[in-house]
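An example makes the point: we let one protein speak, the chain in one-letter code, the fold tokenised, and here it is:
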Amino acid sequence: MWALFKKKGGRVYAAITQDGEVTFHEDWLTEKEARQQAKGSVDGADEPITQNAQGYFARRRSLADIFQSLLTMEDETVLRVLSFVMAETLEAHTDMVDTLGGLIGTDMRNWWTPDGTFFDFLRDKAAINGMVREIAGGHAADAHTVSTAKVQKQIVNDCLSDQRRPEVKNWLPRYMAFPASGRTERY
């Protein structure tokens, strides 16, 4: 099909996206390109390289450089890098991640504890109050409904660091469970 199209002065491009989707595009040669092709001189190339193709080749060169770097590292360092890469490429709250976490039996309590960064990222006051309710109890949550998010985060942190008696031991945010869930409609 495309061979006939190309004989009549057309060209075909294959665009490959990052997720592996392939799309074919048909196009006609410009007059200048047709004259160059008739002369047999197309600057040493039979087909022009699209931006997608250039990106594809650049990524492959980049992967080769990364692989070369990994070969010089200790096994422990390579495993840490691979863990980070895997964590960055898996999308949280997707069916795939929830299924894998459930099948593997992952309990994030073994790998993660709430830290300052976790509290820095908490912005949703309803979600924070839900955490206070879950960890410090309904009485504390009701008493601090109008308190600032900073105060409520401190209550959660105090319970987790045993500076305040928690209602729940070994607490894990719903976001870190398999399957993950949220506290509000926004998640």
User: Anything to note?
Assistant: Residues 108-176 form one domain. The longest strand covers residues 10-16.
